[in-house]
Write a structure and sequence with these properties.
Length: 338
C-alpha cells in the first residue's frame, strides 16, 4: 500500500551523488556502506567459466557450418528474458562464442561472403537506437556504417548484395511510426543512400543478379486483426512491383525460388520468382517461423514454437523434414545463416 501511495523512489547522498536507496513495488535496496577505489580490482579467474568467450578467430569459413543466433543464456521458462547477445554457432558440434561488440547489445544481421566478417544490429542501451555495425571476427574490430544518415533511428533486416559490396537495410527514425525506408550502404565507404519510398518493409533479400530486392510489405488498412502482407520486388531505380500475397519471403534454392508464409493458413510454401508455382514445404511446417536460408539455399534454419521454449531447427526444403539443430539452455532466437 505504501508503494502505491508513494510510488517508486530513489534516495541520493547529496555529498557524493551515490544512490543509497531504491524503492519499488517489488524491490527495496539500501546501500549501507561503500569504499571508494582508484581502480577496479581484477575479476577472479574462476568467473571466466560462466562468461561468454568471445570469438578471436572464426573456427571455420566452410559455407553452411557457421550461423548466428540471439541468445539470452540465463533465461528459463516462466522468466523474463534479459537482453540477448549475438553468438556465432558451429553447427557441426553446437559450440558457440559471443560476437565481440562494445556497447549495449547486438542482434544478428548477416554474413559477408568471406564468412570472416558479419553485420550486427547494435542496440544502444541509453536511447534504444539500433545501428548497423560491421564486425571483423578475426580482429574484433567494429565499424559503424551509414554515418549521419542512419543515426538517431533503428536499422533492421540487413542483406548483403551478391558481390559483397553493398548492404540493403530498412531504417526508420525514432518515433517515425510504422513506415521505414530502404537504404543501400556502400561497405567500403559506409555511405548510405535511400532507395524508393517509405513503407512498412521487412525481410529483405537480394535477387541473384544483384539488380533488385525481394522483400515483404505490410498494409495496416484493417480495423482488426493482423496487417495484410505481400511479397514485392524493388528495383534499384526505386520501382516497386507486388509479386503475390504472403509473408516472410526468403530466397532459397540458389535464388530460384521464394520461401514464404501463407497469409491465411499460416503454412510455409515456395514459389517461383514471379509468385507462381506455389508448392508446400513438407506438411506446411506448422508452428515454425523466423526462417534463414543456408548459403546454397537448400535448407533453412527456423524456430519451432508450441512448447515451453522455442527450439532451433533445420529444415530440408526438398523433403520438408524438420530436425533440432542442438540442445542448449537459454532463449534462442533470430537464426541467421547467410
Amino acid at each position: 500500500e505504501d508503494a502505491l501511495a508513494q510510488g517508486n523512489g530513489l534516495s541520493v547522498d547529496r555529498r557524493t551523488g551515490v544512490v543509497i536507496e531504491q524503492r519499488s513495488s517489488d524491490l527495496h535496496l539500501r546501500l549501507e556502506d561503500w569504499t571508494w577505489r582508484d581502480s577496479i580490482p581484477p575479476i577472479p579467474s574462476k568467473i571466466k567459466s560462466v562468461l561468454f568467450e568471445e570469438v578471436s578467430d572464426p573456427p571455420t569459413t566452410e559455407p553452411g557450418r557457421l550461423a548466428m543466433y540471439a541468445l539470452s543464456r540465463s533465461w528459463s521458462p516462466g522468466q523474463e528474458a534479459d537482453a540477448p547477445e549475438t553468438v556465432l554457432v558451429d553447427l557441426a558440434d553446437g559450440s558457440y562464442h559471443r560476437i565481440p561488440f562494445r556497447g549495449g547489445h547486438a542482434l544478428p544481421g548477416a554474413f559477408l561472403p568471406d564468412r570472416k566478417r558479419v553485420l550486427v544490429l547494435g542496440v544502444d542501451a541509453f536511447d534504444s537506437t539500433v545501428g548497423l555495425d560491421l564486425v571483423d571476427l578475426s580482429t574484433g574490430e567494429v565499424r559503424r556504417l551509414g554515418g549521419e544518415t542512419l543515426e538517431r533511428g533503428r536499422c533492421a533486416s540487413p542483406a548483403i548484395s551478391p558481390d559483397g559490396k553493398t548492404v540493403a537495410v530498412a531504417w526508420k527514425p525514432m518515433g517515425g511510426g510504422l513506415e521505414d525506408s530502404i537504404f543501400l550502404v556502400d561497405l567500403e565507404t559506409g555511405v548510405a543512400r535511400r532507395l524508393g519510398e517509405p513503407r512498412p518493409h521487412f525481410a529483405l533479400n537480394w535477387a541473384p543478379d544483384g539488380r533488385s530486392l525481394v522483400l515483404g510489405i505490410r498494409h495496416y488498412d484493417r480495423m482488426e486483426g493482423p496487417p495484410r502482407e505481400e511479397i514485392a520486388r524493388l528495383d534499384l531505380d526505386g520501382r516497386l512491383e507486388v509479386i503475390r500475397s504472403g509473408g516472410w519471403p526468403v530466397l532459397v534454392q540458389g535464388g530460384r525460388r521464394i520461401l514464404f508464409k501463407e497469409t491465411q493458413a499460416g503454412l510455409w510454401r515456395t514459389c517461383d520468382l514471379d509468385g507462381g508455382d506455389a508448392r508446400p514445404v513438407g506438411d506446411g511446417l506448422p508452428q515454425h517461423g523466423v526462417p534463414s536460408a543456408s548459403p546454397d539455399g537448400s535448407r533453412v534454419l527456423m524456430m519451432k514454437f508450441g512448447g515451453p521454449t522455442p527450439i532451433p531447427v533445420v529444415v530440408d526444403l526438398e523433403t520438408g523434414r524438420s530436425m533440432a539443430v542442438f540442445e542448449s539452455r537459454g532463449l534462442w532466437s533470430l537464426p541467421t545463416w547467410r
